[in-house]
Amino acid sequence: MSGFVEKPEPIQVPGLVHLHTGKVRDLYQNEAGDLVMVASDRMSAYDWVLPTEIPDKGRVLTQLSLWWFDQLADLVPNHVLSTDLPAGAPADWQGRTLICKSLRMIPVECVARGYLTGSGLAEYNESRTVCGLALPEGLSDGSELPAPIFTPATKAAVGEHDENVSYEEVARQVGADTAAQLRQATLAVYGRARDIARDRGIILADTKFEFGFENGDTLVLADEVLTPDSSRFWPADQWEPGRPQPSYDKQFVRDWLTSPESGWDRKSEQPPPPLPQHIVDATRAKYVEAYELLTGMSWA
Questions:
Q1: CA distance linking residue 33 with residue 55, whole number of Å
Q2: How many whole angstroms from its chain centre is CA 162?
Q3: How many helices (H) and strands (E) does the chain have?
Q4: pLDDT digit string (tens) for 273-297?
Q5: Least confident of 20-24, 209-213, 289-293
Q6: What is the DSSP letter of 215?
Q7: Does domain 104-238 have CATH number 3.30.470.20?
Q8: pLDDT tens digits, residue range 152-173?
Q9: 3-state secondary structure of 220
Q10: Alpha-helical regions (H) of the chain
Q11: At 27, is the pLDDT very low, low, confident or very high (cuts 50, 70, 90)?
């Protein structure tokens, strides 16, 4: 059992109805029926939302998502309507808030993998497959795949693992036409983003997307996109298959939590301890570095 160490009380804003508190984002609805998505500075690891926040993380995720939405606009529409701060919202919401279309969300995590790592590596080591897709012999941690693959997962509640599923299972759950649209859009977006990242010296190893339908049948890209929370970004000049790769994400947090210094037993049901300041600082710096390298802009 895991989840929030201490679930935060939602901020009440006149004219907004609080709908949901997720690992990182708080979701509201305004009087027009649009969704208001606020990215917090919360950090999750090992299915726990930690007691320590990472300063600026929510703003980095939001601004990086907006930049990516612009790069992908000709491939797939997205859910962003406005970045204006709702009337009465706290000043701290500035830069971390999106007004979004209310979509009929598809309950599938759309994962694209161009490299073998994480849960994909674990499955490959057992069966030479990932989500039921056969892969060649001889791959190792960090190997580039012969071609990017669509490896969907079912969405899990906070504190639970997303579960990898086969393409056939997705087709059974959402229909063959929708499954085909998801696969095509996921691989198209991954391909574009992989090429953009590669030009900036970054390997996009894998990433996950969420999609919904607008007006019945228009597929729309939603949630966050191509951030260090939803993607594995590796420095290209340090890529070396056969070992875990350095990455622009929360690896500092994961490594500290599983180190003797933290004193935390991941297998216990005890919540993780607060993060020390040096881990907070290093993690913030890594998120900012990813933003600056990808966008070419300085983080003010």
A1: 30
A2: 12
A3: 6, 17
A4: 999 999 999 999 999 999 999 999 9
A5: 20-24
A6: T
A7: yes
A8: 998 765 555 678 889 999 999 9
A9: strand
A10: 57-72, 118-127, 167-174, 176-199, 251-257, 277-295
A11: very high
| 3-state secondary structure at position 100 | strand
Contacts of 127 (CB under 8 A, 6+ apart): none
Supply the pTM of this predicted model. 0.93
Query: What span, in angstroms and rounded, lies between the C-alpha atoms of 36 and 63?
Result: 15
**Edge-to-edge strands of the sheet including 25-29?**
17-21, 25-29, 35-39, 97-100, 80-82
Q: Are 210 and 222 in contact (CB under 8 A)?
A: yes
Dihedrals phi, psi of 63, to nearest 5 degrees: -70, -35
Show me where the domains of the chain are located: 104-238
Tens digit of pLDDT for each residue in 1-15?
568 877 888 999 999
Quote the CA–CA distance of 210 and 107 in Å, as a whole number. 8
Tally of residues, the chain: 300
What letter would DSSP give residue 79?
A: -
Q: Is 52 helix (H, G, I), strand (E, B) or coil?
A: coil
Give the Cα separation of 62 and 107 in Å (integer): 22
The CA–CA distances, whole Å, from 188 to 93, 112, 125, 191, 215 equal 32, 10, 27, 5, 22
